[in-house]
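From the pipeline queue, job 12 of 40. The input is one protein chain; the requested action is below.

Action: predict structure.
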Amino acid sequence: MSEAPRKSGAPAQFGLVMLAGVGAALLTWALARAWPDLPVERATVASVAFIPIWTLLALALVALRRRAPPGSGRRRLFAVHRGLGGALALAAMLIFGSGVGAVLDRALARWQVVHAPAGDVPEVAAQPLDAVLSGLLAAHPDLVRSELSIHPAGPDHPWIEVVYFGPTREPVRVDFDPTSGARVAEGRGPLWVVRDLHRHLLTQPLLGETLLGLLGVALALILCTGLATRRDWLRNLVRRRRPAQPLAMRMHQWVGFFTLPAALLWAWTGALLGLTLIVVPIVGGAAYGGDRTALMRDVLATDRPPLVDTAVDRPDLQRALAARCPGVDAHLEGAEVHQLRVRHPGLASGTVRVDLEGDGLLERGSFTRGADGALRDCRALPAAGPGLQAFMAAIVLHYGEWGPAWLVDLAYVLLGAGLVALSWLGGALLARRRERDGEARSAERLRRWLSGLGYGLPLAITALLLLSRVPALARAEGLALRVFVAVLVLALLLARTFSRAPALLHGALVVLLAAVPIAGWLVAGVVPGPVEAVLVVLAVALVGLRRRPVAPT
């Protein structure tokens, strides 16, 4: 296929995808309107179905045409996979790579804190939550008109974590000792940069999440159309005598085969989370007649009554925890307190919502009490309908907050790294095709961008890990952002300018990985443990990989 037809067909294919989005919106509205159940079930069923409907409609519009010759549908899908995948290979590497960093931020929460509170963590009922709230209200009286999130201490995070919004609406995190209630530290660990990059591209949430939602739809199309790249690709994966293929192609197919279910799940759920600007008006208008407040209350247990500026007694958090509610006691007996959301503490419009979580996928629940102590809401996800269960399970699956933490985190990190490799290999195949078609400069430029981002993102994440081992810099949020951006941009510029940049970046990554445990030992007195051992093993593996390269050229 020549370059001209590919360019001329791209706008038409984009128009078909947008037309499929309009059709999906109409079908979702009809589903939320006609589903025979409660409004919350109609809204959640339609929400979960919106992105898959959009994907399937787009595939059908691209592949199915009247009086088309045999095999033309597969070729059109292949063209979408190649064109859209080539355009978004770098974006996919950034999204999946930052997703790995977001999982690491959660898994290494305790490891990032150089000086964690010493001693055993007391039970939630014995932690000074009320003293922490009183101290914060005394230091910041304006918080009585705001909302605070209080995360009790646990084995993986042995400190009480409080998050609230500052005067300029930026999130402020403060940690407290779980025994004495004394202030321990303020600020987030350095890996917050990667987590926020994955959630909203370090921009305004409304803009960043919407862009990520659209990218999620595009990635779902790339993944699904990848099945059409070869007629017998699945049979070729397993049969003994395969046709001659480049190494990159075989690796791309194998990695895609093992990561496709997880990647499609993350693409769909990520698009669902990102496109709330589109999904909420559709399902809210159809199922709730436009009453967004009722939709948020029924789906997310978010009750935000108007401010009543009348002073009352400060809420007793421990009493609220002990009270619980019948629905939670019946279905979530073993669930633990995940967080408390305290709204308008000390005012008549105040509420305390307690979120509980267990290890199972559906072991979620919450209950809300007002300033007068009356029970406002009580819900347990196991007792909900299938629509709400599917909606909440999609969110839990996307974030990986279920099951044994170490196992889920390990699986998500490995699958995320595999998807980065899948995107890199796809870009390498596109570069090889451009070179074969006589576009040598374009192919070399793409290879350099792939190397810059492929090395730059791990370098930037490792630099943040190095910051977390220095006590004076472990909570410097502004410095962490500057270091991340500087390292990533420098890697991209080097890869674009110097032909030997991949070797330099590879060596720099090895040095940084080996420097993290050394810096923690010498600067902070941290005895090397399992995390340091993993970093050293990665450094040694990268040295061996450089000596015996397996990546295609």
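Job complete. Residues 438-553 form one domain.
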